From TrEMBL:
InterPro entries: Cupredoxin, EfeO_Cupredoxin. The keyword Transport does not apply. Keywords: Signal. This is Putative exported protein. Residues 1-24 form the signal peptide. Residues 10-108 form the EfeO-type cupredoxin-like domain. It comes from the Bacteria. SUPFAM superfamilies: Cupredoxins (SSF49503).
Length: 111
């Protein structure tokens, strides 16, 4: 590899890294805690038409299965944190419900 090709390769790699870190910075991260009784907070407001990341910290021992956005499910193992990527969502309210414990739910409001 000659000197010019090496510099060009390094420049392209730097651009790719910059673009990927800029993309990661654009995704908002929202945190939820799941206890035996409920999710906290019970309502989260996010920007509409934007992809977001939701970190759910299951502080209980029991596994929960989360039902959301029409036929989407995600297992939340006991004692672990789980990341969900959702969106972009149209403006509105979206309810996320525990399948094993339907009383555990939270609402996302996309504005």
């Amino acid at each position: 590899m000659n000197g010019m090709t090496k510099h060009l390769t390094l420049a392209v790699m730097a651009l790719i890294l910059a673009a990927s870190s800029a993309f990661a910075d654009e995704i908002g991260v929202y945190n939820l805690t799941m206890s035996k009784e409920k999710f906290l907070p019970e309502r989260i407001e996010i920007p509409a038409e934007t992809k977001v990341s939701i970190m759910i910290d299951n502080q209980g021992d029991a596994t929960e299965k989360l039902n959301f956005l029409v036929n989407h499910e995600r297992v939340l193992p006991g004692g672990k944190a789980t990341r969900l990527f959702i969106g972009p969502l149209e403006p509105g309210e979206y309810k996320f419900v525990g399948i094993y414990h339907p009383e555990r739910s939270f609402i996302i409001i996309a504005k």
